[in-house]
Amino acid sequence: MGGLRSALIAAGAGLAWLPAVPVGADAVEVDQPWVRVLLTQGRDPVRVGGERYTAVEPGRLRRNGHPVGPRVVVNGPTAVGKVRYRGRIEVSRSAEGVTVINEVPVERYVEGILLREVYPGWEAAVLEAQAVVARTYALHRSRETRGQAWDVTSGTGSQVYGGIDAEAPQAARAVRATEGQVLVFGGKPILAAYHSASGGRTASSEEVWGRALPYLVSVLVEGEEVSPDTYWRIPVSTAKLGRALKDLGWPVGAVEEVGVLERSQSGRVRRAFVEGSRKRIELSGHDLRRAVGGLPSTLFEVKREEDGFLFVGSGHGHGVGMSQWGARAMAQRGASYREILAWFYPGAGLREGWGSGEEL
């Protein structure tokens, strides 16, 4: 975690590494890891705590027009733009302009993302499972990004984080009920991937990312029918698809045919082809999804229509790890959050407490 991170070995912790706690942290938060969240980065001015920060000189910030050096730290709670955050806010001059990072206790971080990732009215077991998954994901990223400026971003590239304004009683209860609980494999926090809906079966990490992880395998998912993404139909014209392919470096000419060449274990499109007036290309299902734009997943069929193609599919997201709609269906059938986690992350253990080393 940049200059603020160090290795921390807690006796018997089971988690071999935890981020360092910033100097001056509240006593109640000292016994838990802290996470560094990238809030914003760019050339535009940023308001932090009512002060206006700009990057107009190499290696220097200006606050309200006055030079203040390359880095300023503001203790929270404070606002960045219109959103309030706990912990500490670090404003720094970077090659990209002004970089703003929120350093926050992991439990507060989880509370600030929980209801941005699942619906507040969902069953307690789903919120509790999501809390464990979100906490685990953040700590996995903290370990993977050691020495870098931040661990996670505040948007969909990591987990959607809303700070104080996203906190609510439902989130607080779920965080308290699972406090300190982390999914581990080999003593380390796992890559706790998740997605909205699987379309009936999750995908393995190997088939999606080419990296086999023993706890991210394909599992059956039942009860997702109520998800808005269980079935979807997206039309795309031949002209639009041809332009998109050209923009991505595949000038096939007028698109004449699109088809599936190979599917993965879970039924997702692994390889596809596009036949054009100039040439035929083969591409991955992910590249075709990117070219079409707006496809919720790679679990689809392609049908020819008069002026284009109809993509008919199921699921939303990459399909790896926990299906949130599948987790809800399990909760409605009476499953606990522990049972939900055991189903979607087989082989992973559940460790409780930052220093207990107890596997549940």
Please provide a written account of the structure.
It is a single chain. By secondary structure, this protein is α+β, with helices and mostly antiparallel strands. Among the domains are: 2-169, no CATH class; 232-313, no CATH class. The protein has helices at 106-117, 124-144, 169-177, 205-209, 238-247, 285-292, 324-332, 337-344, and strands at 34-42, 46-48, 51-57, 60-63, 66-69, 71-75, 78-80, 83-85, 88-94, 97-105, 152-153, 182-185, 188-189, 194-195, 232-237, 255-263, 269-276, 280-284, 300-305, 308-313, 322-323, 349-352, 358-359. Strands 6-9-10-1-11 form a five-stranded mixed beta sheet. The chain has a four-stranded antiparallel beta sheet with strand order 2-3-4-5, with no helix packed on it. Helix 1 packs across helix 2 (124-144). The chain is globular. The two termini are 29 Å apart.
Summarize the structure.
This protein has 360 residues and is of the alpha+beta class. The chain has helices at 106-117, 124-144, 169-177, 205-209, 238-247, 285-292, 324-332, 337-344; strands at residues 34-42, 46-48, 51-57, 60-63, 66-69, 71-75, 78-80, 83-85, 88-94, 97-105, 152-153, 182-185, 188-189, 194-195, 232-237, 255-263, 269-276, 280-284, 300-305, 308-313, 322-323, 349-352, 358-359. A hairpin with a 5-residue loop joins strand 16 (255-263) and strand 17 (269-276).
The end-to-end distance, rounded to whole angstroms, is: 29 Å
* Apparent shape: globular
Query: Main sheet, how many strands, which sense, barrel?
Result: 5 strands, mixed
Radius of gyration: 23 Å
Helix count from the secondary structure assignment: 8
Q: Total number of β-strand segments?
A: 23
User: Which percent range fits the helix content?
Assistant: 10-25%
Proportion of strand residues: 25-35%
User: Uncertain spans, ≥5 residues at pLDDT below 50?
Assistant: 1-28, 356-360
Strand order of the largest sheet: 6-9-10-1-11
